[in-house]
TrEMBL record:
InterPro entries: 6-blade_b-propeller_TolB-like, CHP03437_C, NHL_repeat, TRIM-NHL_E3_ligases. One of its GO terms (molecular function) is zinc ion binding. Pfam families: NHL (PF01436). Keywords: Repeat. Gene3D superfamilies: 2.40.10.500, TolB, C-terminal domain (2.120.10.30). PROSITE patterns: NHL. This is NHL repeat containing protein. NHL repeats lie at residues 183-208, 539-575, 608-637, 659-695. It comes from Paludibaculum fermentans.
Length: 1037
C-alpha cells in the first residue's frame, strides 16, 4: 500500500499549512523562533529563525505528529490496520499524550511554548522545543492544564455532556459545545489567560503555576485558574443568549457566548471577541465576574438614524452557522486580536480585513440614548476603504502581498507582523511602521511557495483532494482512471478540490511522491483556480475546470472529464500524443459551447451536475447526472452540444424527479459498463446498484432496470467498477461501514441466486476503485489518498522457514498465486545483484541483494540497516515494467539464527549444510569424526558494527560478536559441543559459519544440530517451546 498518513486535503509536508489559526514569535530566543498552529493538520510547526526564513521554507520541527508527512487527530502514535487504509488506534494515540487535535492557539511565556489543544479540551506546555530537537529527544509536553493527565481529554473532565466546570477544567472541543478557535493570551505579568469557549468564560492562570514544575511523568499538581470573567464563579455556566435573542444581549457586559481571541495592550487592558461579533474590553484590576468597561463592534441606532452599510467602520462581519437562532454560532466576525502598544488591532475575518483603534483613552464616552456606544475604527488594512470586503483586495483576484482571505490571527515582533490566513492557508510577514501605525505589503510567506498560491497544504503536482458541490453541499471526488490502450498504462486523477486533472505517464511507477507529467485545467502545478485563469465559478471557459468529479479514457486515449461545477463533460485529445502543444478540450457535452454557464432548463443536451462517466464497448458515452437523477447515453459523441440519445432514470429529457422504482434513480454517482454493454449505476440515494442490460439496444427513455444489488448487499454505494478480465463487480460504499466490496460477475450472480460479496475491505470514506493490469484494486478515498492493494507477501528465514526476520538475514519471499520471475535466475559471489530475473525487492525503500529469483519465491538478504524492531515494508516488483507483485509489512527482530539445509531449500528434517574437518560435506558416507571440528552454516546473525555493506562478502572469516552455544541431540538427550569459532563466511554474503568440536563422548549416529545464539535457539520458532525443524549431521567414532 502507498499512502500518506494524513486525513487532510492534498499531501501534508514540512512546508505546508492547512487552516493555520495562530502564530507566535519567541522573541527572547536566539534566533527568534516562530511557531504556527497548523490547526487543520493537527500540529504545531516551528521555524528556527523567524527573521531570515525564505518564502515557502520548510519547518524545522513538528509538534503533535510523528513526522512532517502525518496529519491525524491525536497525532504522534499512528497504528494502521493491516486490513485497512485508515484505521487508527485512537486509544493508542491518546495514550501517547503528545499528539494534538485541532490546536487553535500558541503563546510563549519565558522558556515555554503553550498550545491550546482545543480538540482535546486542554492546554499543553513544551519546554524549549528546539533544544529537544537539537538533543534528538522527543518533543513532548511537560505540563497539562484542563486534564488530570496526558491520556485524558474529556470536556470538563466528565463523560456527561452538561457536567459543571471547575477551576481546573476546560471545554473547548467543537463536539462538546465549544468552538475550536479558543484562544490564549499572556498579560504583562506573565499570567496565562484562556478563552474557555464551551463554558462561556475567560480564565486566568498565574505565572507561578504555569511556569512551575512538570505535572506529568510523575508530577501530580493540578493547575487551577485563579480568576474568571463571563461567569460569577468557577462552577457556573450562563451563556449570553445570542446576537438575535434580543437587542439587549448584544449590550451585556457580564455575559459572553463562546468566543475565542483575546489580547492585552501595554496598559493591561484585556480585549476579548465572542460569538456576538463584538469585542469586550476590561481594564485592570480584575475580579471574578467583573463587567466589561466597553464593547466594540455594536451599532446602537437611534430612531430615524440611517441603516449602516453591510461593511462599515463600526461593526464586524458576521454570519450564522446553525438552523435556529438558539444554536447559531458565528462563522465570521473577529477571529483574532492583537495589540501594539496602546493600539488594538481587530482581525475582522469575514470582511477579510484588519482594523485599528485609537487607544481607549481617546474613545468618546458612551451615550446610548444618542447612539454612541462603540468607538469607530481608525484605519483599515487589506481593503481600500471601510466599505469593501474583497478576498485578496478584489473580486476573483489571486492571493497577493497586499490582501487577505479570512485572516484569523497575528503576532508582532521585531518590527514585523506575522498574519495567518485560513482562506489562503498561509502566514505572511509584513513590515510595521511604528510612527504611522501602519503595515505594508508582505515580504515573506510560509505555507505557500509564493504569494499567488492558496491551496491547502501547498500543491506541487503530486497532491489531490476531494471537493464540495456548493449548490447541494455534497462532497465528491477525487477519482482515478487507468488508460490501458497505450504501450504503458497511463494514470489519470480527477483532482476535484484543486480543479484539475493530473496525468501520469506510467501508472506502474506511481508513488505518493510522483508529480504529474501533464496537468489539465491549470496553468501550472501550484495553482487551483476555479475556471482558470478567471478564478470565477460564473465564468467557464476552455482552459479551466470547476469541481471535476470523474475522469475516463476512451479507446483512442482521449481523456473525458465530468466538469461537475460547470454542468458539462469535456473531451481532451490524448495529452501524451498531442503535437500542437495545446492542453485544451476539443469537445463539450452538456453545454452548447465552452463558455456557457450551467443551464436553468432541463433538456437532453444540457447537464446540471455530471458525476460519473463510462464507455460502452462500441465507444458510446454514458453520463450520470447527480443533480437531475438520470443517466444520459450519447452514441458516438462527436459534436459539441450533442443531444443525448437515451435517458435512464427519467421518462423523458425534461423530467428530473428522484424516485425509487426500477425505472428511476436518486442522486446517481458512479457508473460502469461491462464488456457486454450492461450499465451499472451507483444509485446512491436509493442505496442500490441498478443494472440495465445492453444499453446500446435501449429503444426509449425511462426503461426499467433488469436487476439491482439492494441496500442490504451494497450499503450506500457511490461508485461501481467492472473488472475487464473477470467481469467482477467492485462497489465503493460510504455508509458507516466505509468499505469496498467485490461481487461475482453479473452472470454468476444470476446463476447463483444469491447476492453476496466475496471480498470486502474497510476504507476511510472510499470514493472509487480502479483495477491495475493484474486486477489489483487502487482505491481513492476521502482522505485524499490513492491506496494500491497488492497480494500479500510472506518472508521467512531462508534456513529454517521461521517467520522471525532480522537485518542481514537470508530470507525467502513468496507471493501466493503470483509469478515472480518467469525465467528464474540465481547469483553467487560478491557483490550480489539487486536485480535478478527481472525482479527486485525493496525493504523500506532500500534494494535488497538477491541470490535467487524463481517463479514462486525469491531469496534475498534483508538490508542490514533495516530497524531490528517494529515492522518493515517489503515490496517485490518486476523491474522491466515497474509492476508491483506483492507487498506487506513484516515484523522485525534483532536476530534470527537458522541452520541451513543442504540443497538450497527449507526442510522440516534433513541434512544440515556442514563441512567436516577435512573439508568434505558431511553425509552418511562421510561422517564427522569425534574430537575433530565440524563447520555448520547458518544465517540470521543480525546487524553489528563492522558488518560489510549489503551484498558484499568480507573476504575473510570475520568474527561475529555474541554468545554462541552448540548442542548435538539424539533422542531426548543433548550433548554440548565446544564452539571453536563464530564467523562470517568469507565468500558468501549473509552466511555464517559456526565451527564446533565433536565431543568424544558421542557414539555413531545421526544427530540434530542446535545452535543457540544470544539465547535464541535455531530449532524453536517464536511463540513455541517445541522443536520444529531438525537439521542433522552424521557422527562416527
Amino acid at each position: 500500500m502507498l499512502y500518506p498518513p494524513s486525513s487532510s486535503p492534498n499531501r501534508t509536508k514540512a512546508k505546508s499549512l492547512y487552516s493555520p489559526y495562530s502564530v507566535a514569535v519567541d522573541a527572547a530566543s536566539s534566533p527568534a523562533a516562530v511557531y504556527v498552529a497548523d490547526t487543520g493538520n493537527h500540529r504545531v510547526l516551528g521555524w528556527r529563525d523567524s527573521a531570515n526564513f525564505t518564502s515557502g521554507a520548510p519547518a524545522d520541527l513538528v509538534i503533535g505528529q510523528k513526522d512532517f508527512d502525518s496529519a491525524v487527530p491525536y497525532g504522534a502514535a499512528v497504528r494502521i490496520s493491516e486490513s485497512s487504509t485508515n484505521v487508527y488506534d485512537l486509544q493508542a494515540l491518546k495514550d501517547y499524550g503528545g499528539g494534538l487535535r485541532t490546536p487553535s492557539s500558541v503563546v510563549i511565556i519565558g522558556d515555554y511554548l503553550f498550545v491550546m489543544d482545543a480538540g482535546n479540551n486542554r492546554i499543553v506546555r513544551f519546554r524549549r522545543p528546539f533544544e529537544s530537537l537539537d538533543a534528538g529527544t522527543a518533543i513532548k509536553p511537560d505540563l497539562v492544564i484542563g486534564q488530570p493527565d496526558l491520556k485524558s481529554n474529556l470536556a470538563n473532565q466528565s463523560s456527561t455532556a452538561n457536567a459543571a466546570p471547575t477551576a481546573s477544567t476546560l471545554k473547548t472541543n467543537l463536539g462538546s459545545g465549544g468552538i475550536q478557535t479558543a484562544g490564549l493570551a499572556v498579560d504583562g505579568s506573565g499570567n496565562l489567560w484562556v478563552a474557555d469557549s464551551g463554558n462561556h468564560r475567560i480564565l486566568r492562570y498565574t505565572t507561578g503555576d504555569v511556569t512551575g514544575p512538570s505535572n506529568v511523568d510523575g508530577g501530580t499538581a493540578s493547575i487551577s485558574a485563579d480568576l474568571v470573567l463571563g461567569q460569577t464563579d468557577f462552577n457556573t455556566v450562563v451563556a449570553n443568549a445570542g446576537r438575535y435573542s434580543s437587542a439587549t444581549d448584544q449590550l451585556s457586559k457580564t455575559t459572553i457566548r463562546y468566543g475565542g481571541p483575546l489580547t492585552f495592550d501595554s496598559n493591561g487592558n484585556l480585549y476579548f471577541a465572542d460569538d456576538l461579533a463584538r469585542v469586550l474590553v476590561w481594564g485592570p484590576p480584575f475580579t471574578n465576574g467583573k463587567a466589561a468597561s466597553r464593547i466594540l463592534g455594536i451599532y446602537a441606532a437611534v430612531k430615524g438614524a440611517p441603516a449602516l452599510p453591510a461593511v462599515n467602520d463600526l461593526t464586524f462581519g458576521f454570519s450564522l452557522a446553525g438552523t435556529t437562532v438558539q444554536n447559531a454560532v458565528f462563522t465570521g466576525g473577529p477571529r483574532g486580536l492583537f495589540c501594539i502598544g496602546e493600539n488594538l488591532f481587530v482581525i475582522d475575518s469575514l470582511n477579510h480585513r484588519i482594523v485599528r483603534y485609537d487607544p481607549p483613552s481617546s474613545w468618546p464616552a458612551e451615550d446610548l440614548p444618542n447612539g454612541v456606544f462603540s468607538p469607530h475604527m481608525t484605519n483599515v488594512y487589506g481593503q481600500n476603504d471601510f466599505s469593501t470586503r474583497y478576498q485578496n483586495t478584489a473580486d476573483n483576484l489571486e492571493p497577493n502581498p497586499w490582501g487577505y482571505n479570512a485572516p484569523v490571527a497575528a503576532a508582532y515582533a521585531n518590527g514585523e507582523i506575522y498574519i495567518t490566513e485560513i482562506g489562503n492557508h498561509r502566514v505572511t510577514v509584513r513590515p510595521f511602521d511604528s510612527a504611522a501605525r501602519t503595515f505594508g505589503a508582505a515580504t515573506r510567506i510560509l505555507g505557500q511557495f509564493d504569494f499567488p498560491f492558496k491551496a491547502p497544504n501547498f500543491i506541487e503536482g503530486s497532491e489531490f483532494s476531494g471537493g464540495t458541490i456548493p449548490s447541494i453541499g455534497v462532497s465528491i471526488g477525487p477519482s482515478v482512471a487507468i488508460d490501458r490502450t497505450s504501450d504503458v498504462p497511463r494514470l489519470f486523477i480527477a483532482d476535484t478540490g484543486n480543479n484539475r486533472i493530473l496525468c501520469f505517464a506510467d501508472a506502474r511507477n506511481f508513488t505518493n511522491q510522483s508529480r504529474a507529467d501533464v496537468i489539465l485545467g491549470q496553468v501550472d502545478s501550484y495553482r487551483s483556480l476555479v475556471n482558470s485563469p478567471f478564478n470565477n465559478p460564473a465564468t467557464p471557459g476552455p482552459d479551466g475546470l470547476y469541481i471535476p468529479a470523474d475522469v475516463k479514457v476512451d479507446p483512442q486515449g482521449n481523456v473525458w472529464v465530468a466538469d461537475t461545477g460547470n454542468g458539462r463533460v469535456l473531451r481532451y485529445p490524448n495529452p501524451f500524443t498531442r503535437t500542437d502543444g495545446l492542453l485544451t478540450p476539443d469537445l463539450v457535452l452538456g453545454a452548447p459551447d465552452f463558455t456557457s454557464t450551467v443551464a436553468t432548463q432541463v433538456a437532453r443536451d444540457r447537464m446540471y451536475l455530471p458525476s460519473g462517466l463510462a464507455f460502452t464497448p462500441e465507444g458510446n458515452l454514458a453520463v450520470a447526472d447527480l443533480g437531475l437523477h438520470r443517466v444520459l447515453l450519447f452514441k458516438q459523441p462527436s459534436v459539441s452540444g450533442q443531444t443525448a440519445d437515451i435517458v435512464f432514470g427519467q421518462v423523458d429529457g425534461t423530467s428530473y424527479t428522484a424516485g425509487n422504482l426500477a425505472e428511476q434513480l436518486n442522486s446517481p454517482r458512479g457508473i460502469a459498463i461491462d464488456s457486454f454493454g450492461r450499465l451499472f449505476v451507483a444509485d446512491t440515494g436509493n442505496s442500490r446498484i441498478q443494472i440495465w442490460d445492453d444499453v446500446n439496444s435501449a429503444y426509449s427513455d425511462g426503461l426499467p432496470s433488469q436487476f439491482a444489488l439492494p441496500a442490504g448487499a451494497v450499503g450506500v454505494p457511490i461508485s461501481v467498477t467492472i473488472d475487464p478480465k473477470t467481469e467482477a463487480i467492485w462497489v465503493a460504499e460510504s455508509s458507516n461501514l466505509n468499505r469496498i466490496m467485490r461481487f461475482p460477475s453479473y452472470a454468476e450472480l444470476l446463476g447463483s441466486g444469491s447476492i453476496a460479496s466475496n471480498f470486502s475491505l474497510q476504507v476511510a470514506g472510499p470514493r472509487g476503485v480502479v483495477l491495475d493490469g493484474r486486477g489489483n484494486p487502487m482505491v481513492m478515498d476521502s482522505a485524499s489518498r490513492l491506496t494500491m492493494y497488492y497480494p500479500r507477501l510472506t518472508v521467512v528465514n531462508a534456513a529454517n522457514g521461521f517467520s522471525r526476520v532480522a537485518p542481514a538475514m537470508l530470507g525467502q519471499l513468496r507471493v501466493q498465486g503470483a509469478t515472480l520471475s518467469a525465467d528464474g535466475a540465481s547469483a553467487s559471489g560478491s557483490p550480489l545483484p539487486t536485480n535478478l530475473g527481472d525482479v527486485e525487492v525493496l525493504v523500506n525503500g532500500v534494494n535488497a541483494p538477491l541470490t535467487k529469483a524463481a517463479t514462486d519465491n525469491v531469496t534475498l538478504i534483508v538490508p542490514k540497516g533495516t530497524a531490528p524492531s517494529g515492522t518493515a515494508e517489503f515490496l517485490v516488483r518486476q523491474v522491466s515494467t515497474g509492476q508491483i507483485l506483492g507487498f506487506d509489512r513484516i515484523s522485525m527482530s534483532p536476530i534470527s539464527p537458522g541452520i541451513m539445509f543442504q540443497g538450497d531449500a527449507i526442510y522440516t528434517t534433513g541434512p544440515a549444510m556442514a563441512l567436516n574437518q577435512d573439508g568434505s560435506e558431511n553425509s552418511a558416507s562421510k561422517p564427522a569424526k569425534i574430537d575433530q571440528t565440524l563447520t555448520v552454516f547458518l544465517t540470521g546473525y543480525g546487524n553489528f558494527d563492522g558488518l560489510p555493506d549489503d551484498g558484499l562478502a568480507p573476504g575473510s572469516e570475520a568474527p561475529i560478536p555474541g554468545d554462541v552455544l552448540a548442542y548435538l541431540l539424539l533422542g531426548t538427550g543433548a550433548t554440548q559441543a565446544q564452539v571453536v569459532s563464530s564467523t562470517l563466511d568469507p565468500d558468501k554474503p549473509g552466511v555464517w559459519r559456526v565451527k564446533v568440536k565433536v565431543p568424544t563422548t558421542l557414539n555413531n549416529g545421526t544427530y540434530t544440530v542446535n545452535i543457540v545464539y544470544k539465547s535464541t535457539p535455531t530449532l524453536i520458532p517464536p511463540g513455541s517451546s517445541t522443536i520444529q525443524v531438525r537439521p542433522y549431521v552424521v557422527i562416527a567414532r
